UniProtKB/TrEMBL annotation:
Protein name: CNTLN protein
Gene that encodes the chain: Cntln_0
Source organism superkingdom: Eukaryota
Chain segments carrying region Disordered: 1-33
Extent of Basic and acidic residues compositional bias: 1-17
One GO cellular component term: centriole
Amino acid sequence: QQEKEDLQGKLKLREHLSQTAGKSEATPAPSKNIDLEMKQLQCKLKNSNNEITKQSTTIKSLKNEVQEKEEQIRTLQVKISRLERDLNMKRHLIEDLRSRLKANQENEKTSNETLESLERKVKALAEDCSNKKTSIDSLKQRLNVATKEKTQYEQMYHKAKDELEKKDLKLTNLESKMIETECAMTELETTASQQLHGLAKQSGQALETVQKKLLLTNDKVEELMTFVKALTRELQHSVQELRTKIKQAKKMGEVRACKKGLSQESVQLAASILNVSTTDLEEILEVEDDEETAKTKMEFEKDKEWLQYIQKLLEAQFPFASYLMDAVLEKLNEKKKLVEEYSSLMKHTV
């Protein structure tokens, strides 16, 4: 708008100059320049009018946005009023706490006499705590060795440690508040040190209980490891027994088939030719071929690899229960198939 007003003022000046120039006949050339400048100024006026219309539309949109922002400000003001109420309640609570602190300070004057006797006990407890700290350091080393296979118990230990650190932080915050409220709280530092020593004692007791629990869990884990190893060996042994039974059943079927195909006289004749007894001849017929021996070797190697895989799972880090379950189920399914095969063979032989 200011530019528009300036342009209008310039136009008026140009018109005035053009009028004065028209009166003077001696200077006709500058009037042409004035007309050109007038046209240019008129074009500028048109452009400025277009810009003003654009600015008016943007102003309307901005007004709408301002109304929305005002509504948001109203809602925020309601929230601020609620927060101010909460702050007032908290201030009342702080005043109550200050009055309690003053009452505690008055009570402390009577308890100073008992503090002197307690300081001696605190010194003795500090020596005990130093000894316990050394024992705690050794326990921590043992815990670090044990945590490689027992991450769950390490998490429990870290949680307990974090809780102790939070308690220490709370104590330090309380001490700082008490120092800020009154400078004459130096006497309370002795009581705070006693509380810290008590907390150290409690942490030592907590670590002892944690160590006992760790020892018990170590024993349980070792028992479970021995149980799993015995179970896998028993599974592998039963699978091998079933394989040998199936082979024997197959051989008995083959021998019976051979016996059915051959008469008793032909068996005796073959035994007399070979100069062996009939039982020896049956054992010769029962001899395994090369393919069967290779198959048994392959099965033995697979069983060996399976046992090694289970040993690796037991020695691996947590979690390994799903992999162990899959391996055991695989062997159980193999055993189930062998049992079914053996039962079918026994039915056919009968």
